[in-house]
Amino acid sequence: MINLIYNEWIKLVRKKRFYVVGLIVILFIGMFAYAQLVQERNAEERFGSDVAWEEQLEEEIGSLESRLEDTEMPEGFAENFAAQIEQQRVYLEEGVNPNETGAAMFLRMFLDNSGDLFIPLLVVVVTADLVSSERSSGTIKMLLTRPVERWRILLSKYLTMVLSVSLIVLFISLVSIVIAGSLFGFGGWTQPIITDFSLSSAELTMIPHWQYILTAAGLTWFAAVAVGSLTFLLSVLLKGTAAVMGFMLAALISGTILSVFVSNWETAKYLFMVNLNLTNYLSGQPPPVEGMTLLFSIGVLFVWGALATLLAFRRFQTMDML
Amino acid sequence: MTEERPVLSVQNVSKTIEKTPIIHDLSFDLYPGEVFGFLGPNGSGKTTTIRMIVGLIKPTEGAVTISGHDVQKQFVQAMQNIGSIVENPEMYDYLSGWENLKQYQRMIPGITEKRMHEVIKLVGMTNRVHDLVRTYSLGMRQRLGIAQALLNEPKVLILDEPANGLDPKGIREMREFIRTLAEEEGLSVLVSSHLLSEIQLMCDRVAIISKGRILAVDHVDALLAEKGRVIWQASPAEKARPIIAKHLQVIETAEQQPEAEQIVTLDDQSDLAIVNEALVAAGVKVHLIERRLPSLEDLFLDLTGGESID
Ligand SMILES: Nc1ncnc2c1ncn2[C@@H]1O[C@H](COP(=O)(O)OP(=O)(O)O)[C@@H](O)[C@H]1O
Ligand SMILES: [Mg+2]
C-alpha cells in the first residue's frame, strides 16, 4: 500500500498541480496579511498609537450598534452583528484585547474564514483528476491490469487525497505563521479568545489561542476531507476532470451564497455545502439555519462523505473500463 | 502442441454494452510458445475481447482463464501471468520512460531494477529511457509499452494492433521481435490486427472475427490450404462454366469481371486432368489451369460472405 501511495504521490507532484496550489496559498495569505497591516495602520491613525485599546473597543461597539439600528439588513446579517457586539462586550469586561495582532491571531482569523470556500476549492483542484485523468488519458488500462486488486488502487488514491488535504491545512498554517509572524510578530498563542461551542450552554468561554487554532484546524480538515470524498466520487463517475471541477465549484459557491439566504428554508441544512463552515460554531456566529449545531454539521458532513466514499468504491470495483 | 494445457482460455464469452450485444459466444485457447493472430476489421470486437481478457471489463457471460486462474475470481493470480497493451500504449507523459516503468515495478512484488534494465535493453530503449515520454515517437511509446508488458515476466503477452502507426520498417522489426519472444522465451503472444499481411507472416494460428463472432480458428497453413482455389482460363467461358461446375464448385469472387474468361473454383484436390479432358472434348480452348493458395483477404471475403476488411 505504501508503494501504491508513493506512486500516486509522484504523479501528483510531477503534474505540478501541487505547486500551483502552493503558489495560490502564498499569494492569498500574503494579500490577507497585507490587508490586515493596512487596517492596523488605519486604526492607529484614527486613534493615535497612545489611545488605550479599551477606548478603541468601546468606540467600535458603538459604531456596530448604530449600524445595526440604522440600516435595514437581512435577518442573518443582523444576528451576526448582534453576536459580534455581544462578544466585544465580554472582551471589554474580561479585560482582554481582541484586536491584538500576532501570528496566532492571524492564523485564527484565516482558519475562521477559509474553511467554507478557500480550502475546499484547493482540495477540489488537487483531488478532481485523481481518477478521472487516468480514465481520460487511458493510463487506467496500465494501472488496472497489474496483479493488484482494484480496491487497493482506489484506496491508495483515496489516502493520497486525505494526505493532500492534511498537507494543504498544514501548509496554510505554516505560511500564515511565517508571513503574519514577520509582519506582526510571532506571539499571541496564549492570548485568550472567546469561543462558543454551543454544546453545553449559551455561555461564552475563553480558551487560549493555540487551543482554538488546533480545534479550528481539525474541524477545517474534517470538512475538507468530506469535500475531498465528494470530489473523489465525482472523479470516479466522470471521465472529464473539467466536469468534476465544474460540478464541485458550483456546489461550493452555491453553498456560500445559500448560507446567507437560506435561513427560512429548513431542509437546506441537510445540504453538505451549508455545513462546511464548522469554525463558525467556534467563533460563535449564528448558523445558516436556526437549530444547526456543531455536532449536527459534523454529522451531516460525515454522512455525505461516508456515502460518497462507499459509492465510489462500490462503483469502481465493478465498473467497465471502456 | 495441443496436448499442453492452454495458458489463456477464452470460454463462451459474450458481452453486451448498454443493451447492444457486441461479443457473441467467443471461445479460443492459446498454447505455450505460440503466436496467435486475432484478425478482424475495425469494430469487429477485438479490443472489447482483449479488455475482457485483462479484466478491464466484465464478460456478460462466459469466463477467461489465464494459467488456470479465472480473471474475474482470481484477478491477482491471473494478472501475474499476463502482460498487455490495450489499444494505444498510454503512458504518463509528464514522467520519463524509466519513471513510468518504475511505477509498475513498485506495484508488482518481486520485480527488481535488474529486470527493468533487462526489458529496457530487450526493447532497445537504453538511450532514451530517461527522457520524458512526452518527447517519444509513437514507435518508442510502443517499445516502452512492450517493456512494461514484459516487466512481470508474463506467460502471455497481449498486443492490440501493435502495427498501428508504425512504418514498414518498424512493422518488420516488431514482427521479428514478437517471433523471437515466442521462440526463445517461450511466450504465448496474442496479436490483434486488421492487417492480414501482418497476421499471415508471424502467426502460428489465427482466429478470424467479424461482428463479435469467431468465423474460424486454425493454423494459418491449414486455413489457407483448405480454401485453395483453382483458376481456369478457357474460351468460350459460357461453354466452359457448366462443364467445370459439374466437377468442381465455382465461386463468384468480388473482383471477377463479367467479361473475363477466368473461372474460379474451390480446390478439392481432385484430378484436374479429368475436367480438362471433358473441356477439350466439348471443344473449349483451355489456356490456363492454376492451383492457388488464397491470401487471407480471399479467405476473409469467403468467410464473411463479401464483407471487406477495411
Ligand atoms: N464504449 C462503448 N460503448 C458502446 N459500444 C462500444 C464501445 N466501445 C466499442 N463499442 C462497440 O463495440 C464494437 C467493437 O469495438 P472494438 O472492440 O473496439 O473493435 P475493434 O477493436 O475490433 O476495432 C464496435 O461496434 C463499437 O461500436
Ligand atoms: Mg481495436
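The two ends of chain B are 33 Å apart (CA to CA).
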